[in-house]
Amino acid sequence: MVTNQATYGASKHPTGLWLGELVHFYDKAVKDGHTVDVVSPAGGEVPLDPRSLGRLFADRTVRTYRADPAFMTSLKSTASVADADPDDYSTIFFTGGHGTMWDFPDSTDLRETAEAVYAGGGIASSVCHGAYALINLRDTDGNPLVRNRTVTGFATVEESLAGVKGRVPFLLEDALRAQGARYVRPTVPMTPHAVRDGRLITGQNPVSTKAVSDLILAALAETE
């Protein structure tokens, strides 16, 4: 699942999908023999956060996928999550980028699809700001999916280090805790960190994508 939101709210400050959070998962999953469909809340084009394309964050995997015309073209015309059949999927993975803060939490189609995947025995997973999608998810009893569950996501201190704390509508760490989650993070920010609580698997920040992907693939292997 990727965002359609290209700016911080109504401002002109650009954001979008953090590309590495998609391609690092995509690359590992495909090489492990899985089929991956990229969908978005509204369908159509996926904006890319310019910072995710810079030398500091765009490693060899990111550069390889960015140089793939077919893959990049696919990001200009993603399917809508409303058209995804939950019965076709064993996992829903929410990628990050600050754009998710505006179109993930309140998307009815996203919520219904994710809840159906999870209720059917599938995995709900996220990395970084993708965890905004988890905030409003409910279990089959109507309780917040994250209540009393151990999760992680982009930390408040990391928003400050990224220099965008003042641009965000609310803080992910606070929002998860408000829903009863046991939010965890390491002492050192911007380091890899991923946690698994049953079929709920989360990663903290962009550099956690490989770690959270490994947990997802391990969980899938248990069911095969």
From TrEMBL:
Keywords: Glutamine amidotransferase, Lyase, Stress response. Pfam families: DJ-1_PfpI. Residues 21-211 form the DJ-1/PfpI domain. The keyword Lyase applies. The keyword Iron-sulfur does not apply. SUPFAM superfamilies: Class I glutamine amidotransferase-like (SSF52317). Belongs to the peptidase C56 family. HSP31-like subfamily. This is Type 1 glutamine amidotransferase domain-containing protein. It comes from Streptomyces shaanxiensis.
